[in-house]
Amino acid sequence: MPDKQLVPDVPASELRFDPVSQGWVVIATGRAKKPEQFVKPKEESHGVGEEDPCFFCDLKTQLPPKLLKGEGDNWKIAVVPNKYPAFTCCFSLDEQEIGPYKKINGLGFHEVVITRDHQKHIGQFTVEEVKELVDVYQERYLELMKEKFINYISIFHNHGYAAGASVAHPHSQIIATPVIDPGLSDSLDGSEKYFHQHERCIHCDMIAEDLKDGRRIIFENEKFVALCPFASKVAFEMRIYPKEHHAFFEQLGNEEKAQFAEALSAAMKMIDAALQDPPYNFFIHTAPCNGKEYEHYHWHWECFPKTSVWAGFELSTGIEISVIEPEKAAEFLRSKREDRF
């Protein structure tokens, strides 16, 4: 575990297990609010406030960096511990059972990946700048997976207030945890079931069908394909898959990272141009780092623009409603590609 002096002095979080859904919930006391703070004013701003000064621009306001690309005032990317972490440094899981319930310490790591330019978001990055960001994602992943109790690492990016970005300055986040999230568990279970039935990877079969059909493809190079999935959960949902079967993002070689960066850059530029800088969330779904084999899984990147809001039907059934066919969404995105001519 890291030097305690480098860990934010915040109360330990808890992970609570739901015995019905079989999923974990984080009770992040380090990010706690008073009950009255949940009452929102009737006219609430829909934009991210501009900090004055911006605390992400001035690294002196942050905890000591875990990783810094560039030197002094010429830094390009900084990775710092989150001051208000969802997961905190503990020295044991301290598992407890309370009747039908179970809880453990919210042990883990929560880091912020800050890119230098306050105004420049990923959709405006060059391919080289995207590659530098992917390098940082991988470098921190490889370090965090060495830590005791860590079984899964989530890399994600929130863009825009509606997507959960409470700070205007562009940044990604990395959270390392002892548990696997329900979304990934469902993905792992589904791919494993298909693998046992057909002795093939479901994602490889999906990629082959999408490439054959062609209508949902928005970009491809030698090693990666970007597309709007057949069963898109929201309008303009995008995914990027390696064409070859690989379960682990962290095992990407340098050439593969370069081609992933090219696909990621293209996807971000298309969604930025098509929907005029929409709020979105993206994340990397990769096999857990718990030492097990996942030959049935195929790592990938997913992006969900905030084109819809979950209401009663979605919340009560878990069934998403998307209002445009992914084929039409892909066609519109392709029309915005800078290299289409």
Q: What is this structure, in a nutshell?
A:
The protein contains 6 helices and 14 strands. By secondary structure, the chain is an alpha+beta fold.
Architecture overview:
- This protein has 341 residues and is an alpha+beta fold.
- The protein folds into two domains: 174 residues, 2-Layer Sandwich (HIT family, subunit A), CATH 3.30.428; 152 residues, HIT family, subunit A (2-Layer Sandwich), CATH 3.30.428.10.
- The chain is built from six helices and 14 strands.
- The strands form two sheets. The protein has a ten-stranded antiparallel sheet, with helices on both faces.
- It starts with 13 loop residues before the first strand and ends in a 7-residue tail after the last helix.
Would you spell out the secondary-structure blueprint of this structure?
Blueprint: E1 14-18, E2 23-27, E3 67-69, E4 77-81, E5 96-98, E6 101-105, E7 109-115, H1 127-144, E8 152-159, E9 171-177, H2 182-198, H3 202-213, E10 217-220, E11 224-227, E12 238-242, H4 254-275, E13 280-285, E14 300-305, H5 312-317, H6 326-334
Antiparallel strand pairs: 1-2, 1-6, 3-4, 4-7, 5-6, 7-9, 8-9, 8-13, 10-11, 11-12, 12-14, 13-14
